[in-house]
Amino acid sequence: MTATTAQLLVIGAGPCGLSAALAARALGINVLLLEAEPEDRERPGSRALYVHRENLERLERISPGLGVAIGSFGIRWRAASTFYGGREVYRQEYPDFTGDGLPVYASLRQIDTERFLLDACKSADVGFVWSAAVSRVNSTADGVTVECADGRSFSAHYVIGADGAQSGVRRALGIAMDGPRSTDYRVAVDLADDDSGAAPPERIMHYRHPAMSGQNLLIVPFTGGIQVDVQCASPPMSERLADPSAVREWLPKVVDPGYLDRILWISRYPCLQRVAESFIDEHRRVLLAGEAAHLFVPLGARGMNSGIADAYAAAAAVGLALSAANPRRRAAAIEEYQSLRRQAAERNRSSVDSALRHLRAASGVQRAQQAAAARLARLAPSLGAWLDTAPYGPRGPVTAELGRY
């Protein structure tokens, strides 16, 4: 079948792929986006919840009004509290956000973030090809040809592979993933609000929840509901806790029983810390981004946020390469993307590892430290603050140039 041609092919219509396509269009690049699923696909579950201001700013730059729209739709927590063994050891309250600009973050379901991004892409004249599962990628020094399972073929100067954890682009290029696959799993249950507005949104962290046999769990509000995320020590435990009948047994022990009638979605996922061995192909024509390039458990909101940062950087690299005067400069632009974003991924992996080790508390010393901090938190508030922040890993920018993610 004759190939359809574009300057840039973006593979994957998740937040990373949509952001990459939108960023490329902002640079005047002709973009065609291929998605394996049909246009009317269902995207269940909240998935990633948190969009940091750093990324709201990026989205605002590439599509004026988009960052503000997402920030206005998402919610901010009115309070954050941490409990140990059922006793509160830390609490921080926050004022309402009343500014006209961008909030520090927005908490909303990924499907809502994708809805905003998709509408912006359509307004920016991004071309879409749905039901286009990638089966082969052939890159050369002059460009890339992508073949789909149904026989369709597409060619471009560059490709951004943002097609998720099971990336067909990454597999077609033979790029391996490096890093451990932890035995830890998590079970996430999405619950809809009752629309009464009675309770302000509050993020709650539980260490050693007494009603959950000492398991840790996190409750995170988003626009329209909350997510309850339970830490599991093994795959069999996660399978048991994710069973719908089991959820109906343990859920009323940790949230209002009224939520039993408002269960939206139940999921389980492994705690991964994997990074692609390379973010680019040998010919410097294909760039991997988002979960095609790295897989992190979403502690510290590093999943989607790092993917959007990848997308922004990948589009900028393609823009530089397309305008470069010679092949050496074209290749250098793509290699710079590889250098910077893989550095960010390694930093994020290290932060996630720190968070997982803290939550796992596998040694007696770690457990004793956490228990002591909980006992002394009222006398030394900094100990309560440590228990509150440690589950998300070290904070702060990867580098001044790369930002937080």
TrEMBL record:
FAD-binding domain: residues covered:
7-347
**What cofactors are annotated for this protein?**
FAD
Q: Does the keyword DNA-binding apply?
A: no
Q: Extract the InterPro entries matched here.
A: FAD-bd, FAD/NAD-bd_sf, RIFMO-like
Task: Please indicate which superkingdom the organism of origin belongs to.
Answer: Bacteria
- Matches recorded under SUPFAM superfamilies: FAD/NAD(P)-binding domain
One Gene Ontology term of the molecular function aspect: oxidoreductase activity, acting on paired donors, with incorporation or reduction of molecular oxygen, NAD(P)H as one donor, and incorporation of one atom of oxygen
Keyword list, A-Z: FAD, Flavoprotein, Monooxygenase, Oxidoreductase
For this entry, the protein name equals: FAD-dependent monooxygenase
